[in-house]
Amino acid sequence: MIAGVIGATGYAGAEVVRILAGHPEVEGLVLGSVSYEGERIENIYLNFQGKIAGLLEKPEQVVAASGVVFAALPHGAGEPYAKACMEKGIPFIDLSADFRFDGDEATFTAWYGKPYVHPELRRNAVYGLPELNRAAIKALAAKGPVIIGNPGCYPTGASLGIYPALAKGMAGDGPVIVDAASGVTGGGREPGRAYHFPECSDSVSPYKVGAHRHTPELSRVLGVMAGKPVPLIFTPHLAPMNRGILSTIYIPLDKAHRSGPASGAPRPPSSEAEGKLREIRDRYAAFYKDEPFIRVLPAGTAAATGRVRRSNFCDISVHLDTSGTTLIVVTAIDNMVKGAAGQAVQNMNILCGYPETAGLEAVPALF
Prior knowledge:
Layout: E1 2-6, H1 11-21, E2 28-32, H2 41-44, H3 59-65, E3 68-71, H4 79-88, E4 92-94, H5 105-112, E5 125-127, H6 130-141, E6 147-149, H7 153-167, E7 176-182, H8 197-200, E8 205-206, H9 214-226, E9 232-238, E10 245-252, H10 271-287, E11 294-296, E12 314-320, E13 326-333, H11 337-352
Parallel strand pairs: 1-2, 1-3, 3-4, 4-6, 5-6, 7-9, 11-12
Antiparallel strand pairs: 7-10, 8-9, 10-13, 12-13
Helix pairs in contact: 1-11, 3-4, 6-11, 7-9
């Protein structure tokens, strides 16, 4: 398989290149960049020296030479290349938001300020969260070329932590609250004052409070998981680290899964609470037992970004609040891998019939 990457010089695109370079089924790479056309990728990312080399070409040349195309482009820029891939009959895996809304142009336009250029392409598109849509991805691929709307980084970490509670009827009334923190690579490679070292070092701050673009995507996914609308409060934070997203999620429990009265009064730890927590954790572990990249952690262990660094894993830890009425789920992902490039390659593996873990089996780097 010859794989093409359009937008190969951005952080997410370069991470796709890095992962594909070690993929056992990828025989060659064709790399494209509008900003750096004619230059060599190894001269832009010096860590590629001696391992990954290639001239950066026009996006049209990437499509023409590839058997699968990844696009790591700004929102609204990838549709012409998706159309070209569909006409050629090859998969298109998009890391922007262009294909994440199941054809809901009104929502996309409201949050991203752009209408669809080719709305008819959504007939070939599927939301690419494998743990939710693996069967749908395979079913659509059986009919012809597919466009994958690769999920956003925040929705990936949060939705994987919430999915079992919604699917197994553990969630009660009230909003799900997602409090998440991301490393600065989530802001992309273009420099901005908020990501300047003196501005973000030694400081954690919320941003786009009540107005982050990933809110409608996450809300939409939770509704699919629950089979009904799910009230959501989502607040992102910028953390002084390069990689990672830590999501702390608060899910109100239904009466059958609480370990205390509905009053919500704090109570000291009890055998009843420990038993209820063990039961919920076991249900999470059973729910994800066949998922190669989900690790439900042992009781008493909290998920941390440092333990999933440079890997495609999502670590999940399960906790109860002191009243026993709220489930607290913590998830950790590498925003550049499971939150972007790794998940894109995972989707390629599903589409092409490769082992789903191919190219993604690296042990997380602790340091």
